[in-house]
Amino acid sequence: MLLLAHVGITLGITKGLAKILSRRGMKKFTDLIDFRLVCLGSMLPDIIDKPLGGLVLKETLGNGRIYSHTLLFLLFLIISGIFICFKYKRPGLLAVAEGNAVHCFLDGMWRFPETFLWPVFGWGFPKGDPENWLRLWVNLLTDPWYYVPEILGGAIIMLFIADLVLSKNLYCFIVNGRVKSTIT
After folding, report:
1. At how many degrees (to 10) do helices 3-23 and 144-166 cross?
2. What whole-number distance in Å separates Cα of residue 179 and Cα of residue 182?
3. Domain regions of the chain by residue span
4. Contact present, 94 and 81 (Cβ < 8 Å)
5. How far apart (Å, rounded) are the C-alpha atoms in residues 179 and 184?
6. Does residue 40 sit in helix, strand or coil?
7. Nearest-CA neighbor of 10 among 116, 2, 111?
8. Contact indicator for 82, 64 with CB cutoff of 8 Å
9. Measured in Å, how far apart are the chain's first and last C-alpha atoms?
């Protein structure tokens, strides 16, 4: 998946989860969610791994799914986020971890145990084919497993922005990442 699917679907899941938690009496918690950090987390594995595995380690790995696509990295974010949240009352890293978790789910990382469960199966990562980027773009145009999530994610992002504009909360979102919805 690419940017629209990762960011849009993660925003939709997070907003839906926040709504459910709010209705169950956890509004104080959901008001602390920084949706900007959720968006960052939703792209963090690709921000780290694509340049590292596809460019820097191109000759040895050539794989854009390495360290930050692992359960170990996700657990590091979650445990660090819990520590920082309880010790310093700053939940930001938990928002990043949530976005990262959804990213790994959307990438179907359970289907790639050599990567997701690294280093259980050894210290190396599967070698990829960095020269085959053209195939990804062709798949995006022809394979529904690629273009449907992109369209869905783009639609969710447009609804998210429209909601911010209609509720006059765009500035609040830009400044502190908070979202107050008018859409129920």
Report:
1. 50
2. 10
3. 3-176
4. yes
5. 13
6. helix
7. 2
8. no
9. 28
Residue 55 CA to residue 64 CA, distance in Å, equals: 9
Give the 3-state secondary structure of 114-177.
Answer: HHHCCCCCCCCCCCCCHHHHHHHHHHHHHCHHHHHHHHHHHHHHHHHHHHHHHCCCHHHHHHHC
**Residue recorded with tokens 């690419």:** 2
- pTM (predicted TM-score): 0.86
Q: Find the helix or strand (DSSP H, E) in which 104 lies.
A: helix 92-106
Gap between the Cα atoms of 79 and 94, Å rounded? 9
pLDDT by 10s per residue, the chain, length 184: 688 999 999 999 999 888 888 888 777 666 778 999 999 999 999 999 888 887 787 777 777 888 999 999 999 999 999 999 999 988 899 999 999 999 999 999 999 999 999 999 988 888 876 666 666 666 667 777 778 899 999 999 999 999 899 989 888 889 888 887 555 4
